[in-house]
Write a structure and sequence with these properties.
The complex is a heterodimer of chains A (260) and B (353). The longest helix of chain A has 16 residues, at 184-199. Helices cover 35% and strands 23% of the residues of chain A. In chain A, a hairpin with a 2-residue loop joins β4 and β5 (68-70). Chain A has helices at residues 45-53, 75-80, 98-102, 112-116, 123-136, 154-168, 184-199, 211-217, 240-248, 255-259, and strands spanning 7-16, 19-29, 34-39, 60-65, 68-70, 83-86, 172-176, 204-207, 220-225, 228-233. In chain A, the strands form two sheets. A six-stranded mixed beta sheet of chain A has the order 6-7-8-3-9-10, sandwiched between helices. Chain A has a four-stranded antiparallel beta sheet with strand order 2-1-4-5, with helices on one face. Chain A has ten helices and ten strands. Chain A is globular. Chain B is mostly helical and 353 residues long. Chain B has a single domain (63-343), classed as ABC transporter involved in vitamin B12 uptake, BtuC, CATH 1.10.3470. In chain B, 70% of the residues lie in helices and 2% in strands. A two-stranded antiparallel ribbon of chain B has the order 1-2. In chain B, β1 and β2 form a beta hairpin. In chain B, α4 packs across α14, α5 (98-115) packs antiparallel against α6 and α6 (120-143) packs antiparallel against α7. The chains are: A alpha/beta (260), B mainly alpha (353). At the A-B interface, α2, α7 and α8 of A face α9, α10 and α11 of B.
Chain lengths: 260, 353
């Protein structure tokens, strides 16, 4: 890897009371890749993702985006820096419409007096962009862009959340367990969506427990264990059972992987 | 296309039709869906029914524009307080203190104008600021101290009420004093006649306020954020909404609107009494909100519904009055309406399940 990483973290520490969720964790994401993050329950995957997506502030350590140190205090700040996250619980507001949800927190206002003084939202513009984005990602089985999100199926909601991240993410897209709640067919759609997003040159961080999915789409696999990065492996050189053995501590990874 | 797993290969021959819905929905289902997308419809229908029922039983005397506009005058204050309460309930909170905020704001306005001899405009401004400050206190405690809204506002209710009695020494400011020294405080009592209909400025202010809030809630980013925070606060936060700021502005605005209700109430009552029936106003405002279809769980309902809710209570009590019924019937019927409204709310929510 001769390229510079787009997102790096060094020595991240996060404690919750007596529990140390992150213990000197490191992290590297290179441009245009899909990096899978795997690990046992309680290994600190979620804490790591929260730290780089701004949902939690690490106690120690440094995060760099394109070489510049950043310190996100809220998800909004991470989003402004171009890091979009699809949360496991999707972070959608059920009673609001699809378009309203996609633009939540970054609404478009009408130009001129209506927008500047009456702060009026530009619904037609937001609905058009939302529709374009969903069509682009092949999700236009949704009939009505102004229908409430709570009337959608689980797969469609996932689609809306992914479309939102893909529409606004300019540097990094993070996906936390995007296929966990989905059926076989819907999971396949989401994996295709992930590869679609990658094709557009956006690097993706994929957190998943589903080994077949991870080995299928990931370029590199970051294995998290006991609050820190254990190793990074190439899915072409290791098998799924190797990965499981590393992350559960059944097997010690080779020196080469540790250095990566 | 991603390389499919072995077991997924059969997917290529799978059924490609997506979520085809049975279009032959039953009439009940269709009504349920309509009500789900138009939350102010139920209170509007109930309101029209109430008017028709009382119109038939009482006759022309009830249907006169004089009676109908008199009802509007009676519900103006409750309508304004209900609008403030609606904002708070939309965020899945509740504000028990708006009634006393209204009373203390009225007392402050009156004292500034009559006892201290300040210019009326300044007196009104100070009163409004005092209301907003009380709301801000609620907002800070709810948003930043993360205390439950019920407890916070129960506390501030007592604090503000006691402050009000200590500050005012429980002295009423007389109607004539207000009239001679600060006629601006009676502004909202101004009335004009259209035929037999009598409209006060207070009634018009109520309707205009609700329309403005309707616009803000539905057509500005802040309004959408209010709904999102009430719907699912955690999700709203993760999608980048500054939930604390939204909560704080909502409670502050509720306090400000309560102070505005104070100004309107001075116009309606004439005199300013520190011992006005606070509990009544409080409960009536919550009642109007609930009957108006605002979900107590937050995030659902239209503020237009609150106005209709206030009108329903007004129509029912006026109708029963004219029928010469025992006033307790009104209380009983209000209770039935509240339970009915919440039951309908639960039924409508099932549209998504």
């Amino acid at each position: 890897m001769t390229q510079e990483p787009i997102l790096t973290a060094r020595g991240l520490v996060k404690r919750y009371g007596r529990v140390t969720a992150l213990d000197n964790a490191d992290f590297d994401l290179y441009p245009g890749e899909i990096l899978a993050v795997i690990g046992d329950n309680g290994a600190g995957k979620s804490s790591l993702i929260k730290a780089i997506s701004g949902a939690a502030v690490p106690d120690e350590g440094e995060i760099r985006l394109e070489g510049k140190p950043v310190a996100f205090r809220s998800p909004m700040e991470a989003r402004e820096a171009g890091i979009e996250t699809v949360y496991q619980n999707l972070a959608l507001s059920p009673a609001l419409s699809i378009a309203d949800n996609m633009f939540l927190g970054r609404e478009i206002r009408k130009p001129g007096f209506l927008g500047d003084w009456l702060r009026m939202l530009d619904r037609p513009a937001m609905e058009k962009r939302a529709r374009d984005k969903l069509t682009e990602l092949g999700l236009m089985t949704i009939q009505n862009i102004s229908q409430a999100v709570e009337t959608l199926s689980g797969g469609q909601r996932q689609g809306v959340a992914v479309a939102r991240a893909a529409a606004f993410g300019s540097r990094v897209v993070i996906m936390d367990e995007p296929t966990a709640a989905l059926g076989v067919k819907e999971s396949r759609r989401v994996l295709e969506l992930i590869l679609d997003v990658k094709k557009r040159g956006l690097p993706i961080v994929l957190i998943s427990h589903n080994m077949p999915h991870v080995f299928e789409v990931a370029d590199r696999i970051h294995i998290h264990r006991l609050g820190r990065r254990l190793c990074v492996i190439d899915p072409k050189q290791y098998t799924m059972s190797d990965a499981v053995a590393f992350m559960t501590g059944a097997k010690v990874p080779p020196e080469a992987a540790l250095a990566a | 296309m991603a390389q499919a797993q072995e077991f997924e290969k059969v997917l290529s021959s799978s059924d490609t039709s997506v979520a085809a819905f049975d279009e032959h929905k039953s009439a009940v289902k269709r009504i349920q869906h309509f009500l789900h997308s138009t939350p102010a419809a139920v209170p509007l229908i109930v309101l029209l029914l109430a008017i028709i029922v009382f119109g038939i039983t009482i006759g022309g005397r009830f249907f006169s524009s004089y009676t109908l506009t008199l009802i509007l005058q009676q519900i103006a204050i409750v309508g304004i307080l209900g609008a403030a309460q609606t904002l708070v309930i939309l965020t899945a909170g509740i504000d028990l203190s708006i009634g006393v905020i209204m009373v203390i704001s009225a007392v402050i306005m009156g004292n500034c104008a009559v006892s201290y001899g300040l210019p009326s405009v300044l007196a009104v401004a100070i009163g409004l600021a005092a209301g907003a400050a009380c709301g801000l206190l609620n907002g800070v405690l709810v948003a930043y101290m993360k205390l439950p809204p019920f407890i916070v506002t129960l506390g501030t209710w007592n604090i503000v009420m006691a402050t009000n009695f200590i500050y005012s020494a429980n002295e009423t400011i007389r109607d004539t004093d207000v009239d001679t020294q600060a006629p601006l405080l009676h502004l909202f009592a101004l009335s004009f006649k259209v035929g037999t209909a009598v409209l006060t400025l207070g009634v018009i202010a109520t309707v205009v306020l609700v329309l403005i809030l309707w616009y803000v809630l539905n057509h500005t980013a802040w309004g959408r954020h209010v709904y999102a925070v009430g719907d699912d606060q955690e999700a709203a936060k993760l999608s980048g909404i500054q939930t604390k700021k939204v909560l704080m502005t909502v409670y502050t605005l509720a306090g400000l609107i309560a102070a505005f209700a104070a100004w309107v109430s001075i116009g309606r009552n004439g005199s300013i009494s520190p011992s006005a029936a606070v509990t009544d106003y409080n409960l009536q405002a919550i009642t109007a909100t609930v009957i108006g279809g605002i979900s107590l769980f937050g995030g659902r309902g239209s503020i237009l519904g609150t106005l209709f809710g206030a009108m329903i209570v007004g129509v029912v009590s006026m109708g029963l009055n004219m029928l010469g019924a025992d006033p307790q019937w009104k209380v009983l019927l209000t209770g039935v309406l509240i339970i009915g409204a919440v039951a309908i709310d639960q039924w409508i929510r099932k549209v998504s399940a």
